[in-house]
Protein 1
Amino acid sequence: MKHVVIIGAGPAGLMAAEAALAGGARVDIFDAMPSAGRKFLMAGKSGLNITHSEDEAVFRTRYDAPDARLAAMVEAFGPSEIVKWMAGLGIAAHVGSSGRVFPIGMKASPLLRRWLARLGEAGAVLHTRHRWTGWDARGALTFETLTGQASVKPDASVLALGGASWKRLGSDGAWANLLTERGVALEPFAPSNCGFLVPWSAKMAAHEGAPVKGVSLSAHGQSVRGDFVITRSGIESGAVYPLAAALRRDIAASGRASLTIDLLPDTDEAALAARLAAAHPKDSLSNRLRKAARIDGAKAALLLEVTKGAPPRAAADLARLIKALPLTLTGTAPIDTAISTAGGVPWDALDEGLMLKVLPHVYCAGEMIAWDAPTGGYLLTACLATGRVAGQAAAHSP
Ligand SMILES: Cc1cc2nc3c(=O)[nH]c(=O)nc-3n(C[C@H](O)[C@H](O)[C@H](O)COP(=O)(O)OP(=O)(O)OC[C@H]3O[C@@H](n4cnc5c(N)ncnc54)[C@H](O)[C@@H]3O)c2cc1C
């Protein structure tokens, strides 16, 4: 019986544990935090969007990975397999109106609880408060624990250490140094599904936390319908995330990125101009916007911000601006606040079973591998799919 050690008790690591157990291995799981799956639980706070119900061929095109292997892994363990897997844990799937798939009840905690219980019953042992610190001279894995150093020399190990955001939940990216020292040339981390900086005036920043609902955001010829949120230093959430990778690249190249906001995507520009023109001449601008265009609150503030407090008076010009409000983004929000991170272990450093070519018997899984995807369930699906491959391969490590 092979002994497989999994480091990282997030969704990728737990799926690797499940696959290694199914492959007949004895499994120990180590995590630096006092409990498992902290980011997974956080993801469930606003509804655990675990996968997506769209056509699976379309689903696979959502990934930005310079390698066809990720698509094959997601084909082998994708949306329909995840729904069946959840059912195996007694958790039915709920498909939202957008096609996003959630566990019934939306939360991660019942799923995680049952998953950990099933792993325990199958023989996996979870060791919390064990921070992996590298390898010793014998090639054993070393850990910092509350009672001092520990080491273990398994037949194979799976690293499922996450990306480099939300450090307080465990994924601090500190593993990057440990792999670099061993000759793995990593791709630098970059924030993905992240917020962006806009140098707001104090008036605009006072709208911090306000949702801007039912808009369409465009950049690079791609438009996304949805909502976003004003932050103290810019924008984040929902409709911003699908555009984040392209906006991030613009910022890396030129220090800024342009976003166009259609504040009323369901209203035709000419009809809007006619409604604005028909407003009472004595109406203030804010009344005109509210009555003729139902624009107030954060939407009205955005219009004032972009025009430095002087939106055009002419109805046709105002309508044009409402339909295509230009916003300049000057940076990405700090990486620690990103939903996920791009970069990490490059695909060409990994073999077919996700084993590091320069470190035999050491496999990788989850967000620490260099792939990128928008929100919509794609992140967790890839974590589970890669965890499964790494766990299976580790159980049969040569
Ligand atoms: C607010 C929020 C909402 C999200 N919502 C969604 C969503 O709805 N849908 C979706 O698909 N994705 C969502 N995500 C992203 C998703 O949660 C992550 O992509 C996913 O958790 C990554 O899984 P992972 O197993 O690769 O890594 P992680 O979940 O980050 O787990 C890594 C584990 O490794 C441990 N670790 C790290 N370093 C060490 C070390 N040196 N020693 C020991 N242990 C270590 C950490 O403690 C952690 O437990 C969300 C993320 C956030 C922050």
Protein 2
Amino acid sequence: MAISKRIVLHFPPRLVEQPIIYRLVKEHDLVLNILKASVTPKEEGLLILELSGARKNYDKGIQYLTDVGVRIQSLGQNIMRNEARCTHCGACVVVCPAGALSLDPDTRMVNFDEDKCTACELCVLACPPRAMEVHF
Ligand code: SF4
Ligand code: SF4
């Protein structure tokens, strides 16, 4: 059975320059789509990615990451838009790295595609009327 999940990986500084992602993909036959990356030598690294593959490979891959010391966080929280507050100003569109927020050229309204959202929360900070909300 195939599985696909969005997860956040936190790399402690000692692991940032090691080929962990290379081994994850090569040795566990998984496919990954990196949604966001923040990696600086000697500092904690962060990767938000979608990891897909056969269930048993996925589980082995997660075990491998845990064994080497990567902290794994599920993207369990949801980002929701408070429609009553949104003024369709567009400020969130430019900060969204996942393309989940887009401006409709015809209506000039901002569309929110929840399926593309990686819950990075950048729009929450960028939205002037605080229309983007984090729900747990
Ligand atoms: S920044 Fe806030 S108010 Fe502006 S379009 Fe985005 S969600 Fe709506
Ligand atoms: S949290 Fe906001 S900025 Fe981040 S992916 Fe979702 S909609 Fe885009």
